[in-house]
Amino acid sequence: MRRVLKNRLLWPIGALVALIIVNAISRPSFLSITVRDGELYGSFIDILRNSAPLMLVALGMTLVIATRGIDLSVGAQMAISGAVALTIIKGSPTPNSLSTIAVAVLAGVALTLLFGLWNGFLVSVLGIQPIIATLVLMLAGRGIALLITGGFITTINSTPYAFMSQGYALGFPFAFFVSLGAIVIVSLVVRRTALGVLTESVGINPTASRLAGVRARSITWSLYGLSGLLAGFAGILYSSNIMAADANNAGINIELDAILAVVLGGTSLMGGKFTIAGTVVGVFIIQTLTSTITFLGVPPAVTPVFKAAVVIIVCLSQSRRVRQWARQLWQRLRPRPGGSAPTPTGSTPASAASTQGAVA
Amino acid sequence: MGDEVNAVEMRDISISFPGVLALDGVDFTLRSGEIHSLLGENGAGKSTLIKALTGVYPVDAGTISVAGQRRSFSGTADAQDAGIATVYQEINLCANLSVGENVMLGNEVRGPFGIDWRATRARASEFLRELGLDIDPRSPLSSHSLAVQQLVAISRAVAIDCRVLVLDEPTSSLDRGEVVQLFSVMRRLRDRGVAILFVTHFLDQIDEISDRLTVLRNGKLVGEFQVGELDRAQLISRMLGRELAELDVIGRSSERTIDRSGAPVIRALALGKHGQIEPVDLDVYDGEVVGLAGLLGSGRTELARLLYGADHADRGSIQVRGVPTRLSSPRHSVEHRIAFSSEDRRGEGIIGDLTVAENMVLGVQAKRGWLRRVSRAQRDEIVTGYLKQLGIRPADPNALIRNLSGGNQQKVLLARWLATAPQLLILDEPTRGIDVGAKAEIQRLIADLAEQGLGVVFISAELDEVLRVSQRIVVMRDRRKIAELQNNESVDVDDVVALIAKESAA
Amino acid sequence: MSATTPAATTPISSLRKLIQRRVSWLPVGAAVLILILMFAAGQSYFGRFLTPRLLSSLLVDNAYLIVLAAGMTFVILTGGIDLSVGAVMAFTGMLAAKLLSTGVPTGVVIPVMIASGAVFGLIIGVLVNYFDVQPFIASLAGMFLARGLCFVVSLEAVQVKDTTVLGLQSVKLGTFEWYITPTGIIALLVVVVAAWVLGYTRFGRTVYAIGGNEQSARLMGLPVARTKVLVYVISGVCAGVAGLLFTAYTAAGYSLNGIGTELDTIASVVIGGTLLAGGSGYVIGSLIGVLVYGVIKVSITFLGADSSWTRITIGILLLVFVVVQRVLVARGSRR
């Protein structure tokens, strides 16, 4: 199994390394890290900090995708949590007190947790297709955020709030620690408990899992809640960064970036087996890509073209046909005596094996 | 009958997949106007041979000739053009379309403005009527029974004017009446000169319908015989390559006496579900195997699912050891130590992409919930134990379960349930689609488990199996329980069949 | 058990037969019902709601969406999805605006627009069918590509002054009360052609077959691969045509056009009765779905509410529709 895991991570890590090398060559300053007042600065550090919202969202997305689902509403949920938190802080007489901040954050996150559970209810209890179920909140959520802020972009002036995304701790950006914390907690929960393997079971064969006594419904339900929770935190970070609640732009397109990160990391959209490590690498790939493009002077609006190229390359590399071509090319370059039996076209080892399994 | 060109001639066919030599130099001849059966254990290569003939797999070596002409198929369309039509076990039609559309799909009658639906439907009706089907071509395919859908699939074959018809396990899900109808259709086609290749594992059906048969074993041709040339035992030994004494070793389990003085493990009182089964009473005691016998559609699976809580009963009640219990979900049943093995191994049993070990431990893990993970040590203990006890091959805990043969998959699933230490084990068709050797092993296992005190509900379409392992037999028909009898020396298959038949006459 | 149905001709059995034959039309019927209800509600609440002007504007203002929905129907019928349509629409519009502004004749620009839409569709179709990329991801890549290329063509909006193109929208045929523009005519034409293709050509039947059971369709010898690629090409072509209509409507090419339009399109198709899983649905239904969308948009304007409410309402309506569909399907499949 370790071999499989290593194989899976090979491509994403390779892609990330290639990106870093390209960057390092074109701008040597990319790798430099400067220290100022005990705080680290540099392109690398920027990536660590700026990737935090995406990291949180992508972690939740990984688990939801593993259950054969998807959560398109995470961007809208980011807008909602930001709107709630900032509205509370703005309306409070003590915007700088830690307790106000704590209440604001908790309220924002609690609301998105509820919305996540709502999504989970639609999917696991009513059996609605995840795309549609979360599409609804994606469409309606920003409107809800606008309602909360009364139609305006609420701005605040609160130093402790700004600290979350702009501050430093132990030399590193605080946001990075949030990111790290989420990764560690999710990984521990998923692998130390049986949640990981039960989620995979539900994603691979929900019916069989249910018949085996797995609480498929509860697991799916909670994972959507978790996705909402993480999106809530991401929204807090985002609003902390711009010190505003921008219902229309908070988290725009982040669901697509998150899905991309998950897919780049090697988790299949079909659900089942998933990899947190892969998603982490995927997030860094996307963030580095954004940084690369910005540096190259390409207008940020054009970034999508590069994302498209990355997606296509990764998907092609994961596609069976390309793998077959690569294998045949490799065989042709290194002729072996006797040759080896070609795999039948139109079917692959995987499908042949499963057909054999069906026959037997 | 014809001494002219054979409908199909396959010479020296070899096909291999990574790690597996599926067919090794197999010869096969099919004549026009005959029904030819293809026999072999699972993994013998039947399915592969058919897929080669129908263009799904390309051959690595050897030749295929159709009506004397050398052919090389690069896809299913090629095979169809050559006049070869196939009806697979899973009806390969489109349930979202109507009957007529399915029959004529791809060959609709076209007019100046596109498809002429009236003419298309008329032609579809023609083809359906040729097979004795008088159904509305506009009716949705899904509104018909599986048997009718199969006949629609055959009508499609007739519609494309096939010269060769391949039927892959067509009778697995049919009841006796439907089989008779299918056979009459097959004979009609045969008499028109169609060459029919009939794959089945029901040996009596082969005697009934075929003219010749071919036996494969381990990817090689064993021989081609006339029907009647070999008796049953010889045939089976050709298929297995060994004598079949094993099945008799189990002996007649009916000899054991069951202590029915205490509360039964499970008691169903007037258990039923509207539209599925009429109220049924059922008791299962410790150490007893209760066999559910009946034809397809008699409600055995439905009853099993109600007992397990996979479906919700809307009538009646259940008592577990005398205590009234509501089993509203598999979760509850697991907590009450009831286990259920579905008849649909692929769809409702195995978690394909997980390993053998993970599949085996799933029942225990599900019971403990997600917080308390089964430790590595515990898992290894369970896994190595069952790998050995059940003789699972390959004995590799990290193999993906979907790469195992059906028999071994079934054993892993059994292990999953046994690991949860159940008091009642409900098995729905545990030996379906499994080779004779593994069948024997599983039957013996069930007998052993019962002897050790486990209560078992055993469902199987093969009545001799039911008779071999059960102490009591419950007979069902048309969603009702019609009889219950003690199993002993004097009871045999014909008695049970007669019971079923008697009810239908009334 | 019996292969023959008894020749009963009681009224009830005839009715049942009729319903059974047309069962896939039920969701479309539901959509029509909703449309009628909304008209009635609007009329009773606002007073002068159901006017010929309003009904005409429903078609004309949403012509681009009708075309997009028609194309999307093909894709969704095969069980796929195309997230790129909004971006491709924007791209083709931007391309056209740019070409027109540099003097390229209209007769060349329009085919180029449509061809570029087809190219995007081809790329997505090939990715989905030959490289096993999931439709969601492949069309997402297409969306990113189109959106980015849009900005490459021009960062700012480009005015369109070409009279032919503008005429498509401004020429009003008919009376002052009931009117239609060439864009509306084009939209209706697309719907008619699409409906004909789906219902009366072998290609169209293959589309339905793939959505019903792709494996079976393949085994039946149908040209599955080619069809799967073609449906995305069709969607791309429709996006190109929609680009033309939208550019005529806004008199400009603008890279931020069509953001979120793919969701509006999908919502319209689903509300119109096409099942997301594929295999069942009609283009007429998608037309009704767009009209429903249009009525909601108009009602929001009438109410004087913020336009973001349109999206919310569509979202809620979509949800209700899907839940009802789900309940009906669950009841139907309980055998």
Using only CA atoms, what is the Rg of chain A? Answer: 22 Å
Spatially, the strands of the biggest sheet of chain B line up as 6-9-10-3-11-12
| End-to-end distance of chain B | 43 Å
Helix content of chain B: 25-40%
Strand and helix order of chain A: HEEHHHHHEHEEHHHHEHHHHH
CATH fold field value of chain A: ABC transporter involved in vitamin B12 uptake, BtuC
Oligomer category: heterotrimer
Can you name the CATH architecture of the largest domain in chain B?
Answer: 3-Layer(aba) Sandwich
Largest sheet of chain B: 6 strands, mixed
Poorly predicted sequence stretches spanning 5 or more consecutive residues of chain B: 242-246
The tally of strands of chain A reads 6
Query: Architecture of chain A, according to CATH?
Result: Orthogonal Bundle
Distance between the ends of chain A: 25 Å
Shape of chain B: globular
Number of domains of chain B: 2
**Which two chains form the greatest contact, residue counts included?**
A-B, 40 and 59 residues
Explain this structure to me?
The complex is a heterotrimer of chains A (360), B (506) and C (335). With 360 residues, chain A is mainly alpha-helical. Chain A is built from 16 helices and six strands. A two-stranded antiparallel ribbon of chain A has the order 1-2. A two-stranded antiparallel sheet of chain A has the order 3-6. A two-stranded antiparallel sheet of chain A has the order 4-5. In chain A, helix 3 runs antiparallel to helix 11. Chain A starts with a helix and ends with a helix. The relative contact order of chain A is 0.17. Chain B is an alpha/beta fold and 506 residues long. Chain B folds into two domains: 8-243, Rossmann fold, CATH 3.40.50; 248-505, Rossmann fold, CATH 3.40.50. Chain B has helices at 46-53, 76-81, 99-104, 117-130, 146-159, 176-191, 203-209, 232-240, 246-249, 300-308, 330-335, 345-348, 356-368, 376-389, 406-418, 436-451, 463-469, 493-505; strands at residues 8-17, 20-30, 35-39, 61-66, 69-71, 84-87, 110-111, 114-115, 164-168, 195-199, 212-217, 220-226, 266-273, 277-284, 289-294, 315-320, 323-325, 338-341, 424-428, 455-459, 472-477, 480-486. In chain B, a hairpin with a 2-residue loop joins strand 16 and strand 17 (323-325). The longest helix of chain B has 16 residues, at 176-191. Chain C is an all-alpha fold and 335 residues long. Chain C has a domain at 50-258. In chain C, 74% of the residues lie in helices and 2% in strands. Chain C has helices at 11-21, 26-46, 52-61, 63-77, 85-101, 106-130, 135-153, 163-170, 182-200, 202-212, 214-219, 224-250, 261-271, 283-303, 308-333; strands at 158-159, 173-174, 179-180, 252-253. In chain C, the strands form two sheets. Chain C has a two-stranded antiparallel ribbon. The model of chain C is unreliable at 1-7 (pLDDT under 50). The interface between A and B is large, with 40 and 59 residues.
